[in-house]
Amino acid sequence: MDPVEAASRIVAERFGNPLAAFLGGGVLSEHRTATSDLDIVVLLAGRPAPFRESVRRHGWPVELFVHDRVSIGTWFARDTARRKPNLARMCTSGVVLADAGGLAGQVIAQAQAVLAAGPAPLTSAELAQRRYGLTDLLDDLAGSRDAGETAVISWQVFTEAAELALLLAGNWLGGGKWLLRELRAADRELADGLIAALPDRERLTELADLVLAGAGGRLWDGYRVAGS
Fold first, then answer.
1. Where are the CATH 3.30.460.10 domain residues in the chain?
2. What's the pLDDT tens digit per position in 101-112?
3. Is the link from the previous residue into 85 a cis peptide, with omega within 30 of 0?
4. CA-CA distance, 93 to 74, in Å (whole number)?
5. How far from 183 is each of 60, 74, 88, 90, 100, CA to CA, in Å?
6. Which of 102, 133, 181, 182 is most buried, by the most CB atoms less than 10 A from its CB?
7. Cα separations (Å) of 170 from 85, 120, 140, 166, 212?
8. What is the pLDDT of residues 32-87, one digit of tens each?
9. pTM of the predicted structure, to 2 decimals
10. What angle is formed at CA 159 by the lines to CA 84 and CA 177, rounded to 5 degrees?
């Protein structure tokens, strides 16, 4: 079934006439695959919201993100604190499935404001922690003699270098495949370079050091975090 038609039916069958509902745009984009799911955000007046549920309906795997007027703002704030605006993007990237009295437009405007504000810059403590973490991984990578461990460490180096590059440039983060999509959108050359370098520890180290140079370089000796 067409994703928009399927999503509309699912909303009507499960929630009747909700205050608002949105189908995230991932399944409508060029990123759609044979295993793509329907990300559906639903706004209710109250209980049973808020909750998240995974179901299969009309031939589709479905992720339901159900909120009320308070919880949706709370989750926008939580995603912003994590620097991963997943919910805001779901509300702005796809199509409106339901709208009662213009509430969908209000939610979209709220989500657009979150995205436009961008992520908070790194604090000095966060920057130091990320420099230290990536430095430690690069030391582990240099000393690894186990092929399996080298593969795992290389992926961690990729992840930390990609996230640091995004944060230094004031961009949002992403998880899993979305980390690569965010990096490709921000710096295609670096993204392609890091992917190509995964089996080559020397080249991967060079690229990670290039990212670290923009943050002040490697940090290990003298790094200290005070306990509470």
1. 3-117
2. 899 999 999 999
3. no
4. 20
5. 29, 27, 19, 19, 37
6. 182
7. 13, 8, 28, 6, 15
8. 777 788 999 999 999 998 999 999 999 899 999 999 999 999 999 999 999 999 99
9. 0.86
10. 60
Write out the two tokens for 35. Answer: 């295993």
Q: Give the residue carrying structure tokens 């657009």.
A: 112
Q: Which fold has domain 3-117?
A: Beta Polymerase; domain 2 (3.30.460)
Three-state DSSP class for 4?
helix
What distance in Å separates the CA atoms of residue 109 and residue 122, rounded to the nearest whole number? 26
> Distance (Å, rounded) from C-alpha 208 to C-alpha 192?
13
Q: Are strands 60-67 and 38-43 parallel, antiparallel or unpaired?
A: parallel
Cα-based distances in Å from 173 to 35, 42, 110, 136: 23, 24, 19, 21
Give Cβ neighbours of residue 41 (< 8 Å, ≥ 6 apart). Answer: 21, 22, 24, 65, 66, 67, 72, 87, 90, 91
Helix/strand/coil percentages in the chain, nearest 5: 55, 15, 30
pLDDT in tens, 203-216: 999 999 999 999 99
Report the C-alpha gap between 170 and 102 in whole angstroms.
Answer: 32
Which element (helix H / strand E) includes 98? strand 95-99
Tokens describing residue 186: 């921000």
